[in-house]
Here is the input.
Amino acid sequence: MPDMSASLALTNLVPLAKEVDQNKVTPGVLGFIVFAVMALAVWGLMKSMNRHMGKVTFEEDSQKDAAASGKNSTGGKASPAKG
Here is the structure.
């Protein structure tokens, strides 16, 4: 019995497929494959970027602490501003 329902569905869908204008350009299977590959590439790049950004250490806090204590980033005393 499953063969009857499948053939009935195909029989009903075939006229719908014939209504497509043959003069129109469609992306087809190749367009879908290219789009899928590009989507996977973007997903992989985002995953890689997220992993690399997790490894980045931000030293802003240590520089602010050094500036607040009167020392510059090299460890010496802060020189007075000339002006």
Observations:
- The chain has a mean pLDDT of 75.
- The longest helix spans residues 28-55.
- The chain has three helices and no strands.
